[in-house]
Amino acid sequence: MNTLMTRAIQALMVAVLIGAATFAMMRALPGDAAYRIAAGRYGYDNVDTAAADAVRDELGLGGPALPAFLGWLGDLLRLDFGTSLVTGQPVIEEIGHQLGASMALAGVAVLLSLILGPPLGILAGLRPGGVLDRVLLVVSTGLKAVPQFLMALILILILSVQFRLLPAAGHGEARHFILPALALALGLAAVNARIARDAMARIGAMPFYSFAQWMGLSPRQTLWRHGLRNVSVPLLTYLGLQFVTLVEGVVVVEAVFGWPGIGHALVHAIFSRDVPMVQGTALCLGLSFVLINTLIDLVTQRIDPRRAA
Amino acid sequence: MKHTLAVLAAALVTSATPVLADDTLDVVAQFEIQSAEPSTSGYIFTRMGVAETLTNADPAGVLVPGLATDWAASEDGLTWTFTLRDGGLFHDGTAVTPDAVANALTIARGKPGPLAKTPVTAIEAGEGAVVITLSEPFAALPAYLAHYSAQILAPAAYGADGAGVQVIGTGPYRITDLAPPLRLKAEAFADYWGNAPHVPNVSYAAVSRVETRALMAESGEADFVFGLDPASVARLDMSDAATVHSVAIPRTLLMKVNASHPALSEPEARQALSLSIDREGIAKAVLRYPEGATQLFPPSVGDWHDANLAPLAYDPEAARALLADLGWTAGSDGILTRDGERFALTLTTYPDRPELPLVASVLEQQFRAIGVELTINTTNSSEISSGHQDGSLDLGLIARNFGLIPTPVGTVLSDYAPTGDWGAMGWQNDEIIALARSVGRGDGGLEAQKRIAEILQTELPIIPIAWYRQTLAVAKGVEGAVIDPWERTFGLQDLKLAQ
């Protein structure tokens, strides 16, 4: 209960801080917001001073900062995120649509990374310095070093163009998930595998682990009863941190695969100075960060054998 | 875990089905759908054959009937009557009445766009026709009504404030699912007034990265892929998945020049910059086009292009001589100076069209060769417009569309009569203003157009660099694809699927 209370206060502070920071940053950016919004709406063929003036009149831009920020905060307390300056649609609807698409993609990516990374890492950690361990070190370093943009293109070239197995891009069907999720998952799995390997190697070298085997448990039983639970604690903690990498990756990967997600929305909103959209998406990302860390805290509290004791 | 792998494997297998098995033609282009608002996303609805305009244009730019069957101006040129097609129906089943058309055009005129720049004073419903009143004669009006923002949607398509809330058009395709920002689906509209389309279902997907679009064409994931980069075209030409089409379009890559800048106010200085540009090299190496621009208007804009005009040349020696005559001398670092001022300029451009920053970096080298220092600022496209307005722009590298309406006169009027955000800056020519207005009124004729091109060529308020081409990859098995040089339609209703 204590954890939840702390986290709730934290969430509130995150909301106010993110709102203030994005608001200040968007205001501090050089260039006339009315022109940027007009370019976002009408495109480069049609943006001109007349369009910018029309936008300025319509939106009442250029007023003092403090009332505008307090207004946003007040609306937020009533759960009103405002409307997008570019599309004129309610921000909450746009984010709802896009956050769903991103969460689904991120969820599949994390799942895929957990299937790929930790099992290999644990196997490698059981025999530190073995062939698998050394190969895994090279492969995971390599995978982590490939930028996600490049990874995405390589995957499309191999799996879509060469072997025609999967769609190169698109959204809407299950098969559209595989490539973008894989592009994200390989980078995550590379690190997951290292964390799992290090944790396994450390735990495997501990006296209690040898003691368990000395008592007569088979290596499989030892791993199952005493290894996995211990390995999963740093792994889960790290998963919370990986969320940041994931958000970063989602922005890039969504652009490559034409995925209508929140990363895509955020980039566009920043480019066309769509302040309510930027505040809304940043807020959603910040709060999901708090939420995910809370969940991970709760789970680790339950499974950590040291606390359970 | 086994279960998940099984699902993945199943997905892998099902994905290998043929592309057109579902009778849906998949279109992919770079344009994102913002909402149902015609002034911002209307060009997607007209291109997809969902919405229509009163007038249309053939590939040569000649106006042909759309929802209006014919049109005529009164004797004094102040009243235009557009006779509407009989039997036109909106996708919600309501009739295309003069009231509905007048409503759509009145709403369009109140929003930023070409129609707002016309001397229209009133749009009213007449007997089977729409009557438009002007404050001064304006012969180009029918061409303005071909612009996508003047598309005719049913009254129910607009909210109380005039914003588009739903796309209820009259075209051969009716939207079944509109999912901004990236997707729409449409089916053939059974009650269409014209020929029924051959392909029953079409879908549109916005994919912003050109690499991805090209790969979708190559992998057969999309059937109709618009806007390809030179490298992808070269690769797709070797692929057996798609056929690449390419056509010259009325769009010119040009450099906007601030003629009130101290270093750029003399026409000779602008000529020197023009002479230092190796257009052929840029066209072949960067854009992979057969030729560079020899004048502002590309051959694709018909009689605005004057084949007899002396072409823009590449001659860095002559450029250096011109600048020396103007009193510029090279400093120790090779950069020219005059009265203690360095010949240093900032070139502003935008990444929306990926070739622009590339061309900018080539220009940086070519200008340096004649002693002009260039700093490149790649930013938002609106910086060109706002830099024009506050006078802070030196040079702007832009892609200017002469086909916003199916005649360049619209762009000429807004860019050079007298100046424009995307045209002349700090340069004004009374003759061009008079000529452009006379062409707009309809009494200028061919001679006026030629003279406009000639003045722009000698004075160089803007420096043309290349003429654009539009590219399209169409899946093998799809027949009848043609690129509309005016970029108004994808021509989906004329496509056929090979059996």
TrEMBL record, chain A:
Matching Gene3D superfamilies: MetI-like (1.10.3720.10)
GO molecular function, a single term: dipeptide transmembrane transporter activity
Cellular location(s): Cell membrane
Membrane topology, record value: Multi-pass membrane protein
InterPro entries given in the database record: MetI-like, MetI-like_sf
Domain ABC transmembrane type-1 span(s) in chain numbering: 99-300
Transmembrane portions of the chain: 6-26, 104-126, 146-165, 177-193, 238-257, 277-299
Key words of the record: Cell membrane, Membrane, Transmembrane, Transmembrane helix, Transport
Domain of life: Bacteria
Any one Pfam family match given in the protein's UniProt record, by short name: BPD_transp_1
Recorded GO CC terms: plasma membrane
PANTHER family tied to this protein: DIPEPTIDE TRANSPORT SYSTEM PERMEASE PROTEIN DPPB-RELATED
UniProt similarity note: Belongs to the binding-protein-dependent transport system permease family.
Protein name, entry field: Peptide/nickel transport system permease protein
From TrEMBL, chain B:
Highest taxon of source: Bacteria
Compartment list: Periplasm
MF term (GO), any: peptide transmembrane transporter activity
Cellular component GO terms, alphabetical: ATP-binding cassette (ABC) transporter complex; outer membrane-bounded periplasmic space
UniProt keyword DNA repair present: no
Family the UniProt entry places it in: Belongs to the bacterial solute-binding protein 5 family.
Name the UniProt record assigns to this protein: Peptide/nickel transport system substrate-binding protein
